Structures are given as structure tokens and as C-alpha cells.
Amino acid sequence: MFRLVGVLSLLMMLSVVPAHAHGAPTDPASRAFLCSPGQPTASSPLCRSAIAAGLPSKEWDNIRLPNVRGQDEAMVPDGRLCSAGLAKYGGLDMPSADWPATKLKSTDFTYKATIPHQGSFRFYVTRAGYSPAAPLRWADLDQFLNVPSPPLVNGSYEFKVQLPKDRTGRHLIYTVWQNTDTPDTYYSCTDVEIAAAVKPAPPAAQPAPAAAPPVRAAPPTQSSAAPSTKPSAPRSSTPRPVPVASSAEQPPSNATRFGISAMVAALGGLAVLGGIMLWRKRIL
């Protein structure tokens, strides 16, 4: 009897102890996970500062608030989003560009559930122009994914995400896990480096079509008649002037001289003959 009462008392004591460790992002990893024991980044200056300020590094998966019921902005004040307003996690809120950041290599996210719960996940990313050196505000965030009741795979929740295409460089992913089987909601900050989208290479220039080979002219047909070797003179419509010999330039030939002499002699003979005939007529 006393043994049974002892067992029941022990169970009642255990039931009132709050559950320890529940879940947080591990790929890409949250600030709390990167500052947990065994992580190489736990020795980074900001993690050491957060632990010195009271961060319970072993409880990296227990940043939660009860009875939020979706009223996150009302329950978690600006500048304290990474700690969910819990004083012991306040070191995670320190604004700095020196927090260890994960270079995103894929769109697969993993949220490790150390104690699984039913619930939905909401993912946010900082807007363009975000500065990690300024305190994080709700106005700095854009929600890009909401996943209700995802299945548990090998102790983790897995997600295929699609970040806004205009986000590149240093940003912060803010994850909210709202339970439906407990009154708790969990919060996490994850620093990331988003690579610029690779632009597709322009299409290769098409080679110019090969030029067609020149068409060779057929050789002229040989005529049966032998071609004349003397080129013909070009014809002209203008009449060619008849050349006239100039006496000044060329002396008269012998034939010309003989003709002239004969004509003069004949004329002289005619004159003499005429004179004789006139004389005889007067005498008679």
C-alpha cells in the first residue's frame, strides 16, 4: 500500500515539472543551437557574451511562451524577438553582424524536435535593406511560409521553402512554432547568407549559314568559222570627212604638171589658130 502511494506521489511530482527541451531549427541552425555545448561556434565572441549574460546554453530548444494563441506581436516586444522577451535568453537579442551565419545551399530546412508536439510553423525573413546591427522588429519581417501539422521524420520536421527572390546577402530567418497539443509557442532566430540567384547564360549565337559556292559560267560555244585575228573597227554614225590635199603642204606630182602644160599648150594653139582665121577673113 505504501509502495503504491509512493509511486503515485512520484508521478504527481513529475507531472508538475515543466517539460525540458522541445525543439529549434538545426539546418540552418538557430543562434541558440549554435551557442549550445559541442558546437564549434559556441566559442564565438557573441555566444560567449550571451552565455556570460545568463544564456542557458543547454536549453537551446526551450525558448517558449505559454498562452500566446497566435498573438505573437502583442506578446513578444520589438528588439526582443530572438529571446521571446525571456530575460535569460536576452543575450540572443544583441544586434550585430558578427553572429555566426549559415550560407544557404538548398531550400531544405530542418527543425529538430527533442520533444515532438502537434502544431503549425510560420517562417519569416527580414526585408530588403535589413541591418543586423539594428535591433530586430516585427516591421523588419515578411512571412513567406506557413505549414500546419507537418509530419515528423527521424525526429525532425522537414520543410521545402521558397525565399523571396529579391533577398540576397545577410538576412535573418525567424521561426514560430505554435503548438496545438500544449499552450506553448516557440521562437527562434537564424542568421543566414543568401546567395544571389544565378542568371541563366544567354543562348549561344547561331553560326552563320555557309556561303553557297560560286556558280561557274559555262565556257562559250566554239564557232565553226575561224575567228578573225584583226579586230573590226568600231562603226560610227558620224560621216568621216574626206581628206583634201593642200598645195602648200604637198607639191604637185609630175603627172599633174604634164596635164597642166598640155592644157596651156592646147589653149595657146587654139588662140594662134583663132588669130590666123581672123586675119585671113580680113584679107579676103
Can you walk through the features of this model?
A hairpin with a 4-residue loop joins strand 9 and strand 10. By secondary structure, the chain is of the alpha+beta class. The chain has five helices and ten strands. The radius of gyration is 60 Å and the shape is rod-shaped. The protein has a domain at 21-194: Coagulation Factor XIII, Chain A, domain 1 (Distorted Sandwich). The chain has helices spanning 2-16, 31-34, 45-52, 72-75, 254-283; strands at residues 23-27, 64-66, 102-103, 108-113, 119-126, 141-148, 152-153, 156-160, 169-179, 184-194. Residues 1-20, 223-234 and 241-249 have low confidence and may be disordered. The strands form two sheets. Strands 2, 3, 5, 6, 9 and 10 form a six-stranded mixed sheet that branches. The protein has a four-stranded antiparallel sheet with strand order 1-4-8-7.
SSE run: HEHHEHEEEEEEEEH
Output the radius of gyration.
60 Å
* Cα end-to-end separation: 221 Å
Poorly predicted residue ranges: 1-20, 223-234, 241-249
Question: What is the topology?
Answer:
Layout: H1 2-16, E1 23-27, H2 31-34, H3 45-52, E2 64-66, H4 72-75, E3 102-103, E4 108-113, E5 119-126, E6 141-148, E7 152-153, E8 156-160, E9 169-179, E10 184-194, H5 254-283
Overview in brief:
By secondary structure, the protein is α+β, with helices and mostly antiparallel strands. It has five helices and ten strands; from the N terminus they run H-E-H-H-E-H-E-E-E-E-E-E-E-E-H.
